[in-house]
Write a sequence for this structure.
């Protein structure tokens, strides 16, 4: 019985995957493989003569900073990953990249830490060799950690000058009381200043998250699917899983009431307003992600009535951003406005305009024409976004397979986009765009 | 690399006049059928440097209005308002955006291949039949005012420092010395008539290069070609650039503003651009000295890595607009005159004086002794891999090809640059650095909150480095710190002046 069920499942999966390949959005030759240690490998043949983009994604971000005093650890770790191993020092690693002309960099966000770059195809093997070394055998002394702690504090100081960053810090802290999404990727300053004392604490974090079954490698460029996959396997295939398990991420309880706070800066700056609603994380199993995308387009994009009135006609705002962030757990879908001098005295009206709009969407009846316009828009835009460059494509694959670990995530997401109806938008709004899920933060300069 | 198409150089009253000449609309086609995209670019050789005196901001406002001010009905195509255009763009999922630089304005279209015809038509209408909507003109002028009043002088200290450096390197009267938003005093002088006149005179066939890449539909290409034949055939009226008269001695301008830290910028206009034989060596030298946002450069090591003075310190052989946001140099930002520049990101105010002395000392050493053999080998190897990575996308491939026409480079610039670098010798690079870099004539800009204090420090002996509590440094570093702090700038006190940030806008 068990075997049969398994066979049936396997057959279904195979068929599903074939069907997906037949009319896949990803028209370039591609392959996905799971190594025996759980590491995912995605390869796409892209017409970028002589050059290949790579992205190594680790499913760790500020979301995983569960323990007290360790906020910003995922980002701190991104820095520490450049500090070397017994075989290759940090300087040696940097020199190797330099010699090969590899543009390499890394970033960290709520959910992921990604190491990415572009390199001439003949140098790919050397890069994979060095990367597999640091992912498995990272090693540095306490002094190096202290140096890097200073650099991270410097980065915090640089960020905190930006009013947008200060606003984000306040918004997240106001909206989340339990979930680690309550702090920015940088972490709390009080924690960052203590990083120099954290040498013992970083290792368990590293082993719990930097493990093959929590990592994917994406190669996009002038390579052949099979050879490229074998090359990854050659260097990462022997990577063993560690025993450490990452602590569970506590989930934010259902919010009971609307929240509001403000920030006053002591320097002149444009007034800003952010209105966020606690919304579901990314998934292709429901239509929520697609619904948010539609509503953001319909209500706040440059073709919206909102922008027409407040940006183009009244000139009260010069920037409107409303794209929902794709995240693993429920997070804020934020409508952020930057006010012009003319708009400053209308802050309350703008605040009301946003909340009234959002919280009445459940009753709004969109026409089929409105829906179909957004449908074409999102699909067409995806073509441009996904195929523009090999590094862009590698980045997107690394990102979305972090939510659902197979290339089919792309086609499934576009499928949900195709299926959306006016009723889906209304039911999404009814459930999520309600006052008790709302957080408002305003920022003013002197 | 200089060829027949190159800029004509005329010595005129002691000023170097550079007038790049391009024949009537030229085409660059780069077919790539594997990607379901079409890129179309229209680059006009006109830019903010062509703003008439007293109407600074005209080029930028004209381009923004071509994009956002609606289009008139044209050859059977209907009139479209700003909102209609936005709707059309959104539906196709593509984009049509203007990039406005000192000497180039580019309309960049990127679309799914299936939608390319719609956006090609829109682009042609934007260029040939702009409607110049009054409401949008008022709105856009207001946004530019806002930028000049609040954003430029206050919100980005580092970009401000670079604007100030252009201003002091080229002089207040030079076409390079104002930002794209223009000047507060001149925006009021720009009326609809001025915009229409500028459009008619500058957006001509002779000033235009058209690029198409990705999936190229021959019928669409022919349609664009025929349509653009309606552009005025006016003789090329491209910008006339003059290098600032040579000035001997250092000049230091302290730009005052409400800044948390102190930033440092140095620069010297060059007689070399990417079409010249000396360029590859200068490019290698600049990258070895301070590659943009990378640890390849010596400055990044000695300033950030060894001393933790700031987030980064870089050097450039070519202008790199928008460096705060971009990792790779933008295309279609070509300039007739280039400069060798250095950018030191802000450091704590008490270390500002030290940062300037250190950057200047490194510059003097670069000009005198060049880069080391190890630095040379490492940077050479790096650039051989890195340069081909500069054009990964269709739009950047087109961009580099279009820029080659500007500079008069006939072949594939990135390939030629890589080939030239592969042949470079260490001694040759150092000789060229020595030939072009004259540290004694650099212009310096410092952005600081207390100019008087900085002035006293830079002229006096109180210019040490202060490390954060708990940071210890080895004897060698401390010894060099002492040397740096004691090496005064060879500058006349009368040539240290203060400039209000607002004065630049």
């Amino acid at each position: 019985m068990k075997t049969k069920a398994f066979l049936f499942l396997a057959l279904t999966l195979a068929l599903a995957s074939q069907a997906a390949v037949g009319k896949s959005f990803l028209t370039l030759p591609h392959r996905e493989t799971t190594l025996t240690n759980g590491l995912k490998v995605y390869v796409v043949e892209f017409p970028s003569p002589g050059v290949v983009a790579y992205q190594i994604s680790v499913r760790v971000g500020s979301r995983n900073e569960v323990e007290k005093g360790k906020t910003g650890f995922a980002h701190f770790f991104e820095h520490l990953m450049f500090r070397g191993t017994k075989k290759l020092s940090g300087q040696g690693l940097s020199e190797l990249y330099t010699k090969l002309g590899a543009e390499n960099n890394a970033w960290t966000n709520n959910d992921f830490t990604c190491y990415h770059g572009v390199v001439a195809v003949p140098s790919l093997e050397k890069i994979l060799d060095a990367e597999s070394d640091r992912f498995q055998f990272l090693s540095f002394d306490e002094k190096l950690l202290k140096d890097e702690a200073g650099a991270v504090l410097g980065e915090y100081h640089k960020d905190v000058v930006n009013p947008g960053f200060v606003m984000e810090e306040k918004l997240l802290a106001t909206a989340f009381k339990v979930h680690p999404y309550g702090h920015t990727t940088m972490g709390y300053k009080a924690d960052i200043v203590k990083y120099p004392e954290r040498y013992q604490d970083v290792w368990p974090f590293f082993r719990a998250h930097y493990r093959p079954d929590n990592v994917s490698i994406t190669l996009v460029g002038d390579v052949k699917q099979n050879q490229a996959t074998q090359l990854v396997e050659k260097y990462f295939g022997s990577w063993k899983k560690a025993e450490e398990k990452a602590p569970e991420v506590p989930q934010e309880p259902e919010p009971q009431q609307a929240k509001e706070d403000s920030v006053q800066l002591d320097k002149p700056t444009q007034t800003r307003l952010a209105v966020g609603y606690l919304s579901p994380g990314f998934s292709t199993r429901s239509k929520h992600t697609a619904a948010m995308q539609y509503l953001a387009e319909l209500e706040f994009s440059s073709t919206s009535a909102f922008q027409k009135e407040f940006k183009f006609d009244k000139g009260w705002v010069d920037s409107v951003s409303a794209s929902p962030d794709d995240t693993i757990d429920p997070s804020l879908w934020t409508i952020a406005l930057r006010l012009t001098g003319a708009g400053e005295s209308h802050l309350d009206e703008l605040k009301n305009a946003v909340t009234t709009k959002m919280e009445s969407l459940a009753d709004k009846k969109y026409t089929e024409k409105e829906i179909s316009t957004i449908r074409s828009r999102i699909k067409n835009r995806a073509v441009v976004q996904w195929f523009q460059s090999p590094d862009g494509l590698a980045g997107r694959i690394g990102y979305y397979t972090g939510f659902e670990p197979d290339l089919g995530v792309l086609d499934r997401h576009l499928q949900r986009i195709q299926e959306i109806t006016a009723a889906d938008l209304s039911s999404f709004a009814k459930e999520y765009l309600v006052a008790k899920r709302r957080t408002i933060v305003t920022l003013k300069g002197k | 690399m200089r060829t027949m198409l190159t800029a004509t150089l005329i010595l005129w009253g002691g000023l170097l006049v550079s007038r790049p000449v391009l024949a009537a609309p030229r085409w660059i086609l780069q077919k790539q059928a594997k990607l379901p995209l079409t890129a179309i670019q229209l680059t006009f050789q006109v830019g903010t440097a062509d703003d008439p005196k007293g109407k600074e901001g005209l080029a930028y406002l004209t381009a923004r209005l071509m994009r956002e001010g609606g289009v008139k009905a044209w050859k059977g195509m209907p009139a479209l308002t700003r909102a209609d255009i936005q709707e059309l763009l959104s539906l196709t999922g593509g984009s049509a955006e203007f990039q406005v630089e000192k000497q180039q304005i580019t309309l960049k279209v990127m679309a799914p291949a299936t939608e390319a015809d719609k956006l090609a038509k829109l682009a042609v209408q934007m260029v040939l039949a702009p409607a110049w909507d009054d409401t949008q003109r008022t709105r856009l002028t207001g946004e530019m005012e806002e930028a000049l009043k609040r954003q430029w002088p206050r919100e980005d200290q580092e970009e401000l420092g670079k604007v100030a450096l252009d201003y002091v390197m080229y002089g207040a009267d030079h076409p390079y010395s104002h930002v794209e938003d223009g000047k507060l005093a001149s925006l009021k002088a720009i009326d609809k008539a001025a915009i229409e006149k500028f459009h008619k005179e500058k957006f001509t066939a002779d000033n235009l290069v058209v690029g198409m890449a990705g999936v190229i539909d021959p019928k669409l290409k022919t349609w664009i070609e025929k349509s653009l034949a309606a552009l005025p055939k006016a003789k090329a009226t491209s910008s006339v650039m003059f290098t600032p008269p040579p000035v001997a001695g250092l000049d230091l301008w302290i730009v005052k503003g409400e800044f948390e830290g102190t930033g440092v910028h140095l620069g010297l206009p060059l007689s070399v651009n990417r079409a010249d034989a000396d360029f590859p060596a200068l490019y290698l030298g600049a990258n070895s000295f301070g590659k943009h946002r990378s640890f390849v450069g010596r400055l990044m090591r000695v300033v950030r890595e060894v001393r933790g003075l700031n987030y980064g310190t870089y050097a450039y052989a070519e202008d790199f607009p928008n460096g705060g946001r971009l990792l790779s140099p933008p295309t279609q930002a070509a300039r007739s005159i280039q400069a060798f520049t250095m950018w030191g990101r802000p450091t704590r105010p008490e270390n500002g004086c030290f940062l300037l002395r250190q950057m200047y000392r490194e510059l003097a050493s670069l000009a005198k002794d060049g880069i080391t053999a190890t630095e040379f080998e490492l940077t050479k190897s790096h650039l051989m891999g890195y340069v081909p990575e500069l054009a990964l996308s269709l739009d950047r491939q087109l961009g580099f090809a279009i820029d080659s026409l500007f500079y008069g480079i006939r072949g594939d610039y990135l390939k030629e640059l890589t080939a030239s670098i592969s042949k470079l010798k260490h001694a040759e690079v150092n000789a060229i650095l020595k030939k072009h870099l004259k540290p004694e004539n650099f212009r310096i800009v410092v952005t600081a909150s207390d100019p008087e204090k900085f002035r006293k420090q830079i002229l006096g002996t109180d210019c040490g480095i202060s490390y954060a509590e708990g940071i210890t440094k080895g004897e060698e570093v401390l010894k060099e710190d002492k040397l740096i702090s004691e090496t005064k700038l060879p500058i006349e006190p009368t040539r240290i002046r203060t400039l209000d940030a607002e004065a630049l806008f």
